Each structure stands twice: as C-alpha cells, then as structure tokens.
C-alpha cells in the first residue's frame, strides 16, 4: 500500500514480496513431510481464485450394478440409457491470515546473521500451527461428524466400533485396536467402491492416544516374544515414535504432535495441548502432497491455498524499523468423507 502526498509523490512505505523467503518457507514448512505432521495426511491444492468449487462425486454410481443384464445391448435393439453420475459442487473460500513481525533497524544492521529470515521462520511455525488447528477442527467438528455420518463412516467412540470398547484399554483376547482399524479400512473400501486402498490411508492420532495405544497389552503381547521386543523396550528402531511402528494393522500411523498454546501471553498459567484430542481420524491421500486444481480426488482432506506462506517485508522510516509478515491465505476442507473414517473418542 502506498500513501499519495501533495504533488503525487510516493513515500517508501511500500511492501515488497520476498520471493526467495516465500520459497524457502514452503520448502521448510508447508511442503516438507518431516516438519509438520499435516504434510503427511492433507493434500495442498494451489488455486488461482480465493473462492471456488470442488466436486464431490457419488462413488456408489461407479459400482452400482443392480442387474448384470441392465447394460446388455443386443444387436438391432435400442442402446441402453441411463443418467449421469450424481455429483455436488461444494463451495470453498480461502481465508487470509497475517502473522506480523517488527525488527529495529539497528538490530538488522548489527546482527551477525539474517535476522529477518529468522523472524520469518518463527512466524511460519506459528502459521503452520494455526493451519494444523484449523485442519483438526475441520476434520472433527459437528459439520465433519455429520458428513462422515452421512457417508456411514462415523463412530462416536471406540465402543461404537467393532472393537466394542475403548481402544486404550485393549487386551490380547479382544483385539479391540485391530478390530477397530480393520473395520475403518473396510468401511472406506466399501464407500469408495474399492478405489481407495489401505496403502493410501493414514490414521491420525495425538501423542496422548499414541502413548496409550502402545501401552495396551494388545500391542505389547504382539512383540514381547519376538526379536522386536528389545527395540520396543528401548523405544528405538521402528518403535522410536511413541512406541508404535510406522504401520499398524495395515494403516500408516501419523502422530500429529503439533502443540497449541491457548492462554494469553503473561497469563497466570499457560495452557498447552495437542491439536488433536482423543480422536482417531482415518484419512486417505492418493497422489501425494500436491493436488491439482479442478481435478476430482479421493484425498479426504485438501487445503486450498490461494497464498501459501507469502513473505513480505518493508522499511518503516517513521518508526525506524523493518516490518514484515507471513501470509497464509487458505482453507482446510473435508473434501471426500467417503474416503475417511472418524472415531471421535477412542478412549470411551
């Protein structure tokens, strides 16, 4: 933004986009699978418009055969007729967020490192935490529960699943965790007409739930009499992440350890928690991290990004400081509830 003065002159208060910093933050945060867990289960779709539509197909139409002779076309007869696939156009609107920072000119001049880039990285972490929070909400709130329930893929708690009880107190005789996970896989396969396979599915849980599951006798009994018992006890090798292997009963385990602080700075006490509570969310992501705008996808969750971590900085001569901001203009959407399953509380 520029202020016009008498005579039409422009002052130096003009923000500039730092393309190199923007690209660096995308590499380090939004598109690096080892930084934030969200990059392992959500798909980013770069979009050219802030508001648009995504297509939600009725996957049952792809496998609906009520009579094998329904599509027969004998010679000399009229061709079979039918209707087009059912679909819905669902609207989305990216929301703009700005995470600002301010650095005195003297600090910039005397710093022995690129302090502007350091502040940008700090704000990028804040932006990614906010994005993770918005995504977790989009996948577990009331609207998400309704969407999953409509698809037949919603369970209020662990007892409502085939496990018949809380997953966090599972024992060897009942195999609740195995039953619950395999039921989720079966539900997704049925709802998508077999289009989504187990290797495309991630089970997203919090560190609290991951620890609880790894402490159950169902999991411990699987490894205690095998060579894997020592790495399990040491928390090394494949058990280095919260005592769980990377894959469990056919699904990839993603432990989202993003932390949010919801108390104001300077408050008497600090409230910290993980962005996911007691839920277990099964999400498919075929095709990898980056999606294609305008295409249909069985990726359960997509992040439509109009701006993906844009970095802007400018000189403020009035206050003798460098001002900057990291901008995230995106929205997290539950695009394909048929390719996911929500178990809202696995502890009950």
Low-pLDDT windows of residues: 1-15
Shape: flat
In angstroms, what separates the terminal alpha carbons? Answer: 53 Å
Q: From the helix content, strand content and strand pairing, which structural class follows?
A: alpha+beta
The main β sheet shows up as: 6 strands, mixed
Strand composition percent: 25-35%
Instruction: Calculate Rg over CA atoms.
Output: 25 Å
Number of strands: 15
Strand order of the largest sheet: 6-15-12-7-9-8
Q: Output the number of helix runs.
A: 9
Helix content: 25-40%
User: How would you spell out the order of helices and strands?
Assistant: EHHEEEEHHHEHEHHHEEEEEEEE
Name the average pLDDT. 84
Structural commentary:
- There is one protein chain.
- The protein is α+β, with helices and mostly antiparallel strands and 348 residues long.
- Helix content is 27%, strand content 25%.
- It contains nine helices and 15 strands.
- Strand 13 (301-316) and strand 14 form a beta hairpin.
- Helix 1 crosses helix 4 and helix 4 (115-140) packs across helix 5 (142-150).
- It is flat and about 80 Å long.
- The termini are far apart.
- Residues 1-15 have low confidence and may be disordered.
